[in-house]
Design goal:
Structural class: mainly alpha
Shape: globular
Protein name: DNA-directed RNA polymerase subunit beta
Organism: Agromyces marinus
Helix content: over 70%
Largest sheet: none
Number of helices: 11
Length: 198
């Protein structure tokens, strides 16, 4: 279905297609959450890459259905591409964070690379076959914990890393981006609960 919509150039047309396809995919799967279809959607980017979804949904507003679906896939891709680094940051985040976010995220303790990959799949599966807002809340909580971890790791690198001067900046940038994602996921969860996410 995605392939049939790629290549549109008019921004209004692209926006309409983004919203229509996101709504169609979500309503189709949520109406009949066949485990095989849900599994195919969760792993869609493994087979087809993130570019197909990016072309269709990445320009959508962060507080829209296509925008939040894009960000969920983006989070899953980030985790899969650097599961070791993300799991290290998440683990550090559980140590420095004083919130219940690690409980809300639902990752086991300790959470190694395999566990954070599984969590990413579980969150995405929840978007399609579970409580949509709860899945977004879990994604937001995961992002906040990992962000706290990346920020803490940046502080450590700042104090000790004389060789890689850019490492603290890279880690801080990741922390900031995850904080932004957490805010976007939280906002979309609230919109969904009030029938305001389109």
């Amino acid at each position: 279905m995605f392939e049939g919509f790629l290549g549109a150039e008019d921004p209004a047309h692209v926006s309409r297609l983004a919203h229509d396809t996101a709504a169609a995919v979500l309503s189709r799967v949520r109406a009949d959450p066949d485990p095989e279809i849900v599994a195919r959607l969760v792993t869609y980017t493994d087979e087809h890459g993130i570019d197909a979804i990016a072309e269709l949904w990445s320009q959508a507003s962060p507080k829209s259905l296509p925008g939040v679906l894009w960000r969920i896939y983006l989070l899953r891709t980030m985790i899969r591409q650097d599961a070791e680094g993300v799991s290290l940051a998440f683990q550090r985040g559980t140590e420095v964070s004083r919130t219940i976010d690690q409980v809300v995220a639902g990752a086991p303790t300790p959470a190694g690379p395999a566990e954070v990959r599984d969590l990413a799949d579980t969150i995405l599966r929840g978007v399609f076959a579970g409580d949509f807002a709860a899945a977004l809340d879990r994604a937001a909580a995961f992002c906040r914990v990992a962000s706290a971890g990346f920020a803490s790791l940046a502080d450590d690198a700042d104090a000790s890393d004389a060789v890689h001067h850019d490492r603290p900046g890279v880690l801080t940038t990741r922390a900031l981006r995850l904080t932004e994602l957490a805010d976007e996921f939280g906002a979309c969860a609230r919109l969904w609960r009030h029938d305001g996410l389109d």
